[in-house]
Hints:
Four Helix Bundle (Hemerythrin (Met), subunit A); three-stranded antiparallel beta sheet; globular; alpha+beta; seven-stranded antiparallel beta sheet
Amino acid sequence: MVIKRDIYQPLILTIPDDTALFSILDPEEEITKKIVMENYINFYSFRDPQYGNVVFRFENFMDYESIVGLERCFIPIDIMKKYYDDLDIIIKLLTEGYGITMPVARSCISFYGNDAEGNHLLFIYGADTERRNFFCKDFSGGKFVEFEVPFDAVKNSLAVYYRPFAKESDGLLAFRINKKISPQIDYTKVYCEFHKLDQEYYSDEAGYGIGAVNMVLNDIKKRPFAYAAAGSWFNVCYFLLEASKLFNLRYKIFTNEPGLKQDKEVGSAGADINKLFKDTNLLFLTVYRLHLKKINVLEDVFKELVTLLCICRDDLRVVVKYFCGAILEL
């Protein structure tokens, strides 16, 4: 029996956690507009306890919050490991129309290569029970590609999986769209998310909102040697670029609201959002070209990247102020 849920070209391509969710969002459905408007607005950053580097992300709604319009089922990794030889629950969830993400040991999955190490989050969207393969997607060569993983490889991965700094969110997460939920956008929630993004506080260990960008900038100032390789800039640059795409989509959705007054401020905001996209795109492309050429970030380029990152942060401030003010006028 072949089981496959519908998947779509994701709106953003950041990390598997985000991309898996966006892969099940039909761009033609109204519920997609609701989910995009209400979620993946705020940022957070944290210092990795194992390696000491700063990690930049969207606020993690998939693991820790409720996304209205999404049904979820979570099984802790300890339970999955205990019954690693029984994959029936995965098959049943797929049959019920769920997409699944679960952590795997890369060394057990041939897609990641013979010398793969560490752990990774795998997106499973179907299975062939006769051939005993799962249908999966992950990044390869900058694209989110399809591939198959044998049932036995998943069993082996669960058996050997180990994470030294385990989190309570470590486990199988199944999710699907709840079609019974009204697609009406809750602008109270949208406002709260933009208000959170407007916060600039950060510490040496974590930052939220625009403060997440400030934390990265502060880390660059304190540990410039850690940013000598172009690849060390990828994380924050790419998330800001993908976020700007979502802001552009939100602007298009928002400007079609019946209660919105169409004035010069609306047009100006469109220009501000375009500027955010252009600046984040320039920042990312600058880093990407350096990375392709395997060139270290020398002093002049280093200063240029810091300046561009500051400009992107300031662009964010302008966009946030617009949305917060305009939502209050609805």
